[in-house]
Specification:
The chain has ten helices and 18 strands. It folds into three domains: 7-117, no CATH class; 118-255, Jelly Rolls (Sandwich); 262-344, 3-Layer(bab) Sandwich (Phage tail protein beta-alpha-beta fold). It has helices spanning 7-14, 20-29, 33-49, 57-70, 83-112, 114-118, 254-257, 271-282, 291-295, 307-318; strands spanning 119-123, 130-133, 139-142, 147-151, 160-171, 181-184, 189-193, 197-203, 206-213, 216-220, 229-231, 236-240, 245-248, 263-270, 285-288, 297-303, 320-326, 339-344. 33% of the residues lie in helices and 29% in strands. The strands form three sheets. Strands 1, 2, 3, 4, 5, 6, 7, 8, 9, 10, 11, 12 and 13 form a 13-stranded mixed β-sheet that branches. Helix 1 packs across helix 3, helix 2 runs parallel beside helix 5 and helix 4 (57-70) packs antiparallel against helix 5. The termini are far apart. The chain crosses the membrane at residues 95-113. Pfam families: FecR (PF04773), FecR_C (PF16344). Residues 263-324 form the Protein FecR C-terminal domain.
Length: 350
């Protein structure tokens, strides 16, 4: 049967008022990912009501190990006199051992899950677009297949720093003390802002920053000798997978912002690039059968409801045949994805 716990029991746990049996139930309850998210929500509520609390998992773990060492049996001090006394001592000692082991298991589990303690993840699936309001009232729109990691504690009152994998548009709330907002990407690109609107893209083939309002500063942390770069509205900065950096001024931004409205916008975009964007957004494989077709270009705005809806429009415009070569079967392979092959049809003779 699934374990359910009330908020009051968890709050008692934060205050050290729970019994050994309740600690065991809490440990079983935390095995459920949904319970973990509820646990962190209640922890944040309790921390707001008890501002003196600052979680320090490493210190707690060290204290628990010290506790176990302190309760280790000292056999030299035990005198075997009367049997009832020995049994009573052994019973108490085993109980203390059990309590210490439960504490170690709870603290060790918290230590192993410290990233989940400290950070909250916002994630979107393929084809999903999601808008998030951060504690400092900044707004983030996450594109498909993206992850934003935000500190659970002190965000807004202290340093504002997030990590992004994928693509997102940020509308940053300006703070009275001009506190910076920092976005970091896996390829060690750092974006620093005060109050502005911009898009950050960071995937396998590199990173990109599109600035629509305000001013941002970029740094390449894997090259500490490189000078910071200041971007102005209309600028687009790119960092390739190989580490090549470029900055373009006075660019047309709508094509980079269309995904917020669940659309694709192309301007003389190659079929190869369109195929890549469809694969990236919907989590499918799109294969262009020949080089001549991959070099053809296309312009226009297309509604991005599904991979097949976009591909069908391309097929009608470019006289292309779409063949699905792999049917996904989630019951057999959860990672199985459909593959679409684009092939040029022969021109009809009038």
């Amino acid at each position: 049967m699934k374990t359910t716990l009330s908020r009051q029991i968890i709050w008692n746990f934060f205050e050290g008022k729970t019994t050994p049996m309740q600690n065991t139930l809490i440990q079983e309850w935390l095995a459920d990912p949904n319970s973990q998210e509820l646990y962190f929500q209640w922890l944040e509520e309790w921390e707001r009501d008890n501002p003196q609390f600052t979680p320090n998992v490493e210190a707690a773990y060290a204290r628990s190990l010290q506790l176990v060492q302190e309760i280790e049996p000292q056999t030299d001090d035990i005198t075997l006199t009367e049997e009832p006394v020995v049994r009573s001592f052994v019973s108490r000692f085993r109980f203390v051992q059990w309590v210490a082991a439960a504490c170690v298991m709870l603290v060790a589990g918290a230590y192993l899950l410290r990233n989940e303690w400290y950070y909250k993840r916002y994630e979107t699936g393929y084809g999903e677009v999601r808008t998030i309001r951060l504690p400092d009232n900044s707004r983030v729109s996450l594109n498909a297949h993206s992850v934003l990691t935000v500190p659970r504690f002190g965000f807004g009152s202290g340093q504002r720093e997030v990590q992004l994998t994928g693509e997102a548009e940020f509308a940053i709330q300006h703070m009275p003390d001009h506190r910076r907002f920092i976005v970091r990407t896996p390829d060690q690109l750092e974006v620093q802002v005060l109050g502005t609107e911009f898009i950050v893209y960071s995937r396998e083939r590199g990173s990109k920053v599109v600035l629509s309002q305000g001013k941002v500063q970029l740094r390449q942390l894997r090259d500490l000798t490189a000078k910071p770069v200041i971007m102005l509205p209309g600028d687009i900065a790119t960092l390739s997978q190989e580490g090549h950096f470029s900055l373009r001024h006075q660019q047309q931004l709508p094509t980079h912002q269309a995904w917020k409205h669940r659309r694709f916008m192309f301007e003389n975009t190659s079929v190869a690039e369109i195929a890549y964007q469809i694969s990236e957004h919907f989590g499918v494989n799109v294969v262009v059968s020949d080089p001549a077709l991959s070099r053809r270009t296309l312009g226009g705005t297309f509604q991005a409801n599904s991979a097949m809806s976009v591909l069908q429009v391309l097929a009608d415009i470019l006289n292309v045949q779409i063949t699905q070569t792999k049917q996904p079967d989630p019951t057999v392979d959860r990672d199985s994805v459909p593959t679409y092959v684009l092939t040029s049809l022969p021109k009809s003779i009038p």
